[in-house]
């Protein structure tokens, strides 16, 4: 048996230092995500919502969903930190660079960044 | 030199042969996903910039069918759940259950793509062609790029299934499924952003 | 593209369990060690590196001929050597060729060849993807250049500002070739980037921690990280342009409400990291050459590393300085002005460190060192004129004049290319087993230096006098005549120096048997590539090297005695690995990378001319994916019995577990 494990092509989940969530926990996490999604869709039916209000509600919910999927489903919370760094670097660059680009276009100017134009 | 800890046959081999102890393929997938962030960053910001600049033609507000898209969003969310279940069942060694979850994930992905095709045809009938106005170009390009990513994911899941039925997908390969899962969840994450930024925020 | 490689190990069946010897019945496993078959099927990072180098020199000649055509046209006022339309194509293709098909692959040549050697690995993480990356690049380059025979080259400048590059203003197929060709080379860069990043992070020899990596390897890592994050942005920009041109989309159609600045932003968000992608490998090369010929360790190694990382970071925050004249608004201009001035700081740190390394060293002025010093001096000039662009009011004067042309030739030619030429002389004996002639090399260096300064120095003056870049000709009486003439003379001197370089290669190769063999370590080097025989054996290292120090190879040769004096304790020949390779286990060659790479230009031609060709290309792509996936990355007939303890060298994670054992695993489920 030892020879077999020595030569197994793929590792056992080493690197997952902590135990991964159980199936039941995954289902719970999905329920939370689904609940947030219901809230998101709910904003569509608010008649008198302004864009600023919608951004204020929806963007935080989007970020929470993003973090939950990346952290639990993609195991970033448990896995080797190098994965987190590589991915977050790309994400960070993307958000900052394109945020700046849209700012120079005056994309946010309708609200509070008027001064940058 | 071979007699150092890392050079010993066996111990050096699998699992810890690499400097970081993680496998090349999984690291490569994460690097690729980091790079893909910039791809979708460019596409989404292009869309945001252009969507309200159309000179004429249908506007997003006239076309979007939020209840329909919400269903698509739920489908993709559920496929993420079935994907993690596929990974965890294979880690436990339950090959049969793994097949069921892989198949369900691929099917849910296919339903999502079907929804997208339906959405595109509806929009086209309502007068939004690819060249009609600048919103049309930006919208179709962004969502089609996402759709292509989903389709590639479906192909990968199907090849996993084929492998499984040929008896080549045991628990020792759970990391392969996990790596494909990473791609799948990333595509889901991108949809989370697109759903909020493109559909819900006017 | 990582996806494809992964599917190889997913789908690879246990050897002997139903895998056809020739996957899909097309190819039998390539076995040739020599001849053209060994080159087209190779997955060896060294052969791939050599091919990158050779093809970049080939494109260098093409780009150089285009440069000479430009200079001949501008030698005197009112010349009619090139028509205005042809002139547009020539300068565009000159820029595109030199940047994407010369400097980038030349950097890739050094990185592919050296980086695995410097980290003590037997190959890169994904050898077949590496081959795919090379073939995709070369086919993309050929695809771009076939535009000359299919209706004319691209004519919108290398940064191809839309909507000027839309069908209305650029009706020939040139820009389609540009957009699709760069898309193809972008795929090559992305695949190569993921591969090399994983290699540096994951394939280091025991003891080779990140802060013991040679500076060249560090700079390669930063370059590849920049590439994998910058390429997607240009990919999107090129997709948008392609869709506009071929399918009538409206991204850059101003009548439909488009903003012409969108292209400029997307292009330069890629384009500024790109200039660091061009220069950082050369910085790495001189950081290897200068310590060896000063006989001192590099001064301030951590500063060298962190300034490289800082350049990589800050390179993302300065792109809009290419667009100061486009009406960004005062706050944006001020912000980008400041960030641009800041990025000069880490670059200055590097220049200081090189000089401090030279300071007090026992310097031997060989050709590689001359080129390295040339880089330090010329890049400093280019860097300083760059800082003048950071000052927005001054930049408004300089934009689109020859001053800009002077600046970027000083950083790319005087910087990147000088470094690479030095690198050629430095590593030539390691790669081919004979020296390039040092005397001819010195002639080459001095001619290059003189020709280079004669060509591009006067352009500063011309630019400040107001001569537009990209102008096809100029009138007598503007005061441009003299310096343009000088510049043209300089260009032909550069051409002569390049000729001498090729003569040097040919003569040195012919006289190789008369030279004394270089041995493993001809220059008394410091990093691991000098611990193996020259030319490097196919398997690199007999055993995984174990690293203790930074500059580990040097520390094995020299140690302090009781009095604290550093003395040589070993001759390199005594401790170098002899290279019998008996314990090595290498990934098997494959035809699939080159087959898959042919799909991309086919798809490209199809998009431009007839979608049926694209369909064929798509079939080739799909078929080669299946073939690739079904072909195990190990050759089952060439496997040693049992395991060799170097399992990670095949890199594909597709380990050579003997069939019986794997079968047992499956049965055990």
Q: Layout of helices and strands, plus pairs?
A:
The complex is a heterotrimer of chains A (117), B (202) and C (669).
Chain A lengths: L1 H5 L16 H21 L7 H23 L7 H24 L13
Helix pairs in contact in A: 2-3
Chain B lengths: L23 H27 L9 H4 L2 H27 L2 H31 L8 H32 L8 H27 L2
Chain C lengths: L1 H10 L23 H6 L4 H30 L9 H36 L7 H20 L27 H29 L12 H33 L13 H34 L6 H14 L15 H29 L8 H24 L1 H7 L3 H31 L5 H28 L15 H30 L41 H6 E3 L5 E3 L3 H4 L16 H17 L2 H20 L28 H10 L1
Antiparallel strand pairs in C: 1-2
Rg from alpha-carbon coordinates of chain C:
25 Å
CATH homologous superfamily grouping of chain C: Cytochrome c oxidase-like, subunit I domain
Compressed to H and E, one letter per element, the order of chain A equals: HHHH
**Largest beta sheet of chain A, briefly?**
none
Order of helices and strands of chain C: HHHHHHHHHHHHHHHHEEHHHH
CATH-assigned fold name of chain C: Cytochrome C Oxidase, Chain A
Mean pLDDT reading of chain A: 80
N- and C-termini, Cα separation of chain C: 31 Å
Report the sheet-strand fraction of chain A: under 5%
Note the main sheet of chain C: 2 strands, antiparallel
Describe this entry's structure for a reader.
The complex is a heterotrimer of chains A (117), B (202) and C (669). With 117 residues, chain A is an all-alpha fold. Chain A has 4 helices and no strands. The longest helix of chain A is centred in the C-terminal third of the chain and has 24 residues, at 81-104. Chain A is flat, with a radius of gyration of 21 Å. Chain B has one domain: Cytochrome c oxidase, subunit III, four-helix bundle (Four Helix Bundle (Hemerythrin (Met), subunit A)), CATH 1.20.120.80. Chain B has helices at 24-50, 60-63, 66-92, 95-125, 134-165, 174-200. In chain B, helix 3 (66-92) runs antiparallel to helix 4 (95-125). In chain C, 62% of the residues lie in helices and 1% in strands. In chain C, helix 8 (261-294) crosses helix 13 (402-432). The radius of gyration of chain C is 25 Å and the shape is globular. Residues 1-21 and 639-669 of chain C have low confidence and may be disordered. Classes of the chains: A mainly alpha (117), B mainly alpha (202), C mainly alpha (669). The interface between B and C is large, with 66 and 71 residues.
């Amino acid at each position: 048996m030892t020879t077999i494990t020595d030569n197994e092509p793929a590792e056992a989940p080493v690197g997952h230092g902590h135990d991964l969530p159980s199936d039941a926990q995954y289902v719970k996490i999905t329920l939370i995500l689904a609940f947030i999604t219901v809230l998101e869709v709910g904003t569509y039916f608010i008649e008198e919502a302004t864009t600023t209000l919608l951004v204020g509600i929806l963007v935080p919910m989007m970020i929470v969903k993003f973090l939950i999927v990346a952290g639990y489903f993609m195991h970033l919370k448990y896995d080797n930190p190098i994965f987190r760094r590589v991915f977050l670097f790309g994400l960070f660059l993307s958000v900052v660079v394109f945020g700046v680009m849209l700012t120079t276009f005056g994309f946010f100017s309708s609200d509070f960044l008027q001064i940058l134009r | 030199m071979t007699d150092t800890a890392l050079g010993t046959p066996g111990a050096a081999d699998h699992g810890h042969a690499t400097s970081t102890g993680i496998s090349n393929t999984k690291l490569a997938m994460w690097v690729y996903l980091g790079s893909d962030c910039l791809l979708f960053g460019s596409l989404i910001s292009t869309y945001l910039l252009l969507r309200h600049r159309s000179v004429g033609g249908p506007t997003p507000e006239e076309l979007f069918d939020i209840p329909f898209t919400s269903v698509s969003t739920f489908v993709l969310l559920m496929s993420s759940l079935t994907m993690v279940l596929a990974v965890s069942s294979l880690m436990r060694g339950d090959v049969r259950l793994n097949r069921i979850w892989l198949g369900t994930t691929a099917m849910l992905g296919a339903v999502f793509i079907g929804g997208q095709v339906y959405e595109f045809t509806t929009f086209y009938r309502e007068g939004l062609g690819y060249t009609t106005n600048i919103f049309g170009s930006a919208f179709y390009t962004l969502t089609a790029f996402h759709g292509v990513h989903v389709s590639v994911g479906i192909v990968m899941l199907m090849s996993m299934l084929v492998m499984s039925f040929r008896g080549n997908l045991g628990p020792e390969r759970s990391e392969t499924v996990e790596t494909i899962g990473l791609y799948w969840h990333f595509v889901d994450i991108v949809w989370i952003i697109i759903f909020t930024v493109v559909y819900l925020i006017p | 593209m990582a996806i494809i490689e992964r599917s190889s190990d997913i789908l690879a069946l246990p050897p002997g369990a139903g895998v056809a010897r020739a996957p899909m019945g097309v190819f039998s496993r390539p076995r040739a060690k020599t001849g053209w078959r060994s080159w087209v099927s190779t997955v060896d990072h060294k052969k791939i590196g050599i091919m990158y180098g050779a093809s970049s020199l080939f494109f260098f000649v093409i780009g150089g001929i285009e440069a000479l055509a430009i200079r001949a046209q501008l030698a005197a006022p009112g010349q009619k050597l090139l028509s205005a339309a042809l002139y547009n194509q020539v300068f565009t293709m000159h820029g595109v060729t030199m940047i994407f098909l010369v400097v980038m692959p030349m950097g890739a040549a050094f990185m592919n060849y050296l980086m695995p050697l410097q980290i003590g690995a037997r190959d890169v993480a994904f050898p077949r993807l590496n081959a795919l990356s090379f073939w995709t690049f070369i086919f993309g380059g050929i695809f771009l250049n076939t535009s000359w025979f299919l209706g004319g080259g691209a004519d919108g400048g290398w940064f191809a500002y839309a909507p000027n590059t839309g069908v209305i203003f650029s009706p020939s197929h040139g820009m389609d070739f540009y957009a699709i060709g760069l898309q193809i080379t972008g795929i090559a860069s992305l695949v190569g980037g993921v591969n090399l990043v994983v290699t540096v992070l994951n394939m280091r020899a025991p003891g080779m921690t990140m802060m013991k990596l040679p500076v060249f390897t560090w700079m390669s890592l930063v370059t590849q990280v920049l590439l994998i994050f910058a390429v997607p942005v240009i990919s999107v920009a090129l997709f948008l342009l392609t869709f506009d041109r071929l399918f009538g989309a409206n991204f850059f159609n101003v009548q439909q409400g488009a903003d012409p600045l969108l292209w400029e932003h997307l292009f330069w968000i890629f384009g500024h990291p790109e200039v660091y992608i061009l220069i950082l490998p050369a910085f790495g090369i001189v950081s290897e050459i200068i310590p060896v010929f000063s006989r001192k360790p590099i001064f301030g190694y951590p500063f060298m590393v962190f300034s490289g990382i800082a350049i990589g970071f800050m390179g993302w925050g300065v792109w809009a300085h290419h667009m100061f004249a486009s009406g960004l608004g005062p706050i944006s201009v001020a912000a980008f002005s400041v960030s641009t001035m800041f990025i000069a700081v880490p670059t200055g740190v590097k220049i200081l460190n090189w000089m401090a390394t030279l300071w007090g060293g026992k310097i031997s002025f060989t050709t590689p060192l001359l080129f390295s010093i040339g880089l330090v001096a010329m890049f400093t000039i280019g860097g300083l004129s760059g800082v003048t662009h950071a000052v927005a009011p001054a930049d408004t004067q300089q934009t689109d004049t020859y001053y800009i042309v002077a600046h970027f030739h000083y950083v790319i030619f005087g910087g990147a290319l000088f470094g690479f030429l030095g690198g050629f002389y430095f590593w030539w004996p390691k790669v081919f087993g004979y020296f390039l002639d040092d005397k001819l090399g010195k002639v080459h260096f001095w001619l290059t230096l003189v020709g280079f300064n004669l060509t591009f120095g006067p352009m500063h003056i011309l630019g400040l006098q107001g001569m537009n870049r990209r102008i096809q000709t100029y009138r007598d009486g503007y005061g441009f005549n003299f310096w343009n003439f000088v510049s043209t003379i300089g260009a032909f001197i550069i051409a002569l120096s390049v000729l001498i370089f090729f003569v040097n290669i040919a003569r040195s190769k012919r006289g190789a048997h008369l030279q004394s063999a270089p041995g493993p370590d001809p220059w008394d080097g410091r990093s691991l590539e000098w611990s193996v025989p020259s030319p490097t054996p196919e398997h690199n290292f007999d055993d995984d090297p174990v690293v203790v120090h930074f500059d580990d190879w040097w520390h094995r040769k020299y140690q302090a005695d009781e009095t604290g004096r550093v003395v040589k304790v070993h001759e390199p020949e005594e401790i170098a690995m002899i290279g019998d390779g008996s314990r090595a286990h290498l990934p098997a060659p494959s035809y699939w990378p080159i087959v898959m790479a042919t799909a991309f230009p086919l798809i490209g031609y199809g998009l431009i001319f007839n979608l049926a060709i694209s369909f064929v290309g798509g079939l080739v792509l799909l078929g080669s994916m299946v073939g690739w996936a079904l072909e195990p990355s190990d050759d089952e007939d060439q496997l040693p019995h049992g395991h060799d303890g170097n399992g990670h060298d095949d890199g594909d994670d597709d380990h050579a577990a003997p069939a019986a054992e794997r079968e047992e695993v499956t049965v055990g489920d």
